[in-house]
Design a protein that fits this description.
about 300 residues, alpha/beta, 9-stranded mixed beta sheet, 4-stranded antiparallel beta sheet, about 40% helix, about 25% strand
């Protein structure tokens, strides 16, 4: 059932030596090209109505509307701020991105196409430019799915949040494989177990692992985005970030075709009226016409791994 097995011999040499982890991580994110970011944007647009409703539901349920929010890893399109974030949080929001080209491009996208003049600054999630215990909220969209040093990243979140401040992570894409496989190997090494990970990749629509994380949460197998969500919750607790929610959140919403097509037109992206995003979680995100609803309406569905944690 699991055709792939991951061993230490599969880990790139530069990732085995801890002192190299951070530099490798930072160099990759500082120099990444815009092509993959464009793919993420276009893949998210067909399910945007449901995804926006999902984000709004979580934010309004857990986060005080007066909170001043920061976001790290905002990307080349500022997708979370420009397309997902509820209006009541936008005035006090600041985006940070380590890639200087992405910073400039995100500002231009907001200004030219969406009329959203957000604050976008250059910044590193491993070294945030804040005093201890100083920020209300950090909320991000799939920003921690490719970091190599989860402990260091979440320790920095905990340092910066004030007491009672919140960390929110929405995982709407399949995470990068290497950080999770390496994480699972390290867990097995510490537990004195066989140091290999059985997994299935390329099995549409999910990347599945048989892991200690899945056993701990009573799953026979676990989608990688849910593995990441549980792992962020577990690591965060070591630094005083207490989970208020950790798991899959789903949303389904019907909109008119005009509303569905509007963000495509604004951004100059070819319209898709039927879409199945294999990169989303839990793997069946879609937008489609449904014979049971009005002819001009489109049904959209979104599912994300979500953690909401509060510093206590």
């Amino acid at each position: 059932m699991y055709p792939n097995v991951f061993h230490w011999s599969d880990v790139p040499r530069e990732l085995i030596v801890p002192v190299h982890d951070l530099e490798h991580d930072l160099a990759f994110h500082r120099t990444a090209g815009l092509e993959i970011q464009q793919g993420f944007l276009e893949g998210r647009l067909p399910t945007l109505p449901a995804s926006r409703a999902l984000v709004a539901r979580i934010m309004r349920e857990y986060i005080p509307r007066e909170s001043a929010g920061v976001e790290f890893g905002s990307g080349g399109y500022g997708t979370f701020f420009n397309l997902f974030l509820p209006d009541e949080f936008r005035e006090k929001w600041t985006q940070y991105e380590i890639n200087p080209f992405f910073v400039d491009h995100s500002k231009e996208i907001g200004r030219r196409y969406l009329g959203t003049e957000g604050r976008v600054l250059e910044g590193d999630l491993y070294k945030m430019p804040f005093a201890d215990n100083s920020i209300d909220l950090m909320a991000v969209l799939s920003s921690y799915d490719s970091v190599m040093l989860f402990d260091k990243a979440l320790a920095e979140v905990a340092r910066c949040l004030r007491l009672g401040g919140d960390f929110v992570h929405f995982q709407d894409l399949i995470p990068a494989e290497m950080p999770l496989l390496l994480t699972e190997l390290k867990k097995r090494q510490r537990a004195g177990l066989l140091e290999e990970v059985n997994y299935m990749c390329g099995y549409i629509p999910e990347f599945l692992l048989f892991s200690l994380e899945s056993l701990a949460h009573e799953y026979e197998q676990i989608p990688s985005a849910l593995y990441l969500t549980f792992h962020l919750a577990d690591v965060g607790q070591q630094y005083g970030l207490v989970p208020l929610h950790s798991g899959i959140v789903q949303e389904e919403i019907v909109v008119t075709r005009e509303i569905h097509a509007a963000p495509f037109r604004k951004l100059g992206v070819t319209y898709h009226d039927s879409f199945n995003s294999m990169g989303h979680l839990p793997g069946h995100n879609y937008s489609r016409e449904n014979s049971l609803i009005r002819k001009r309406d489109v049904e959209t569905y979104s599912g994300m791994g979500v953690i909401v944690a509060q510093k206590q």
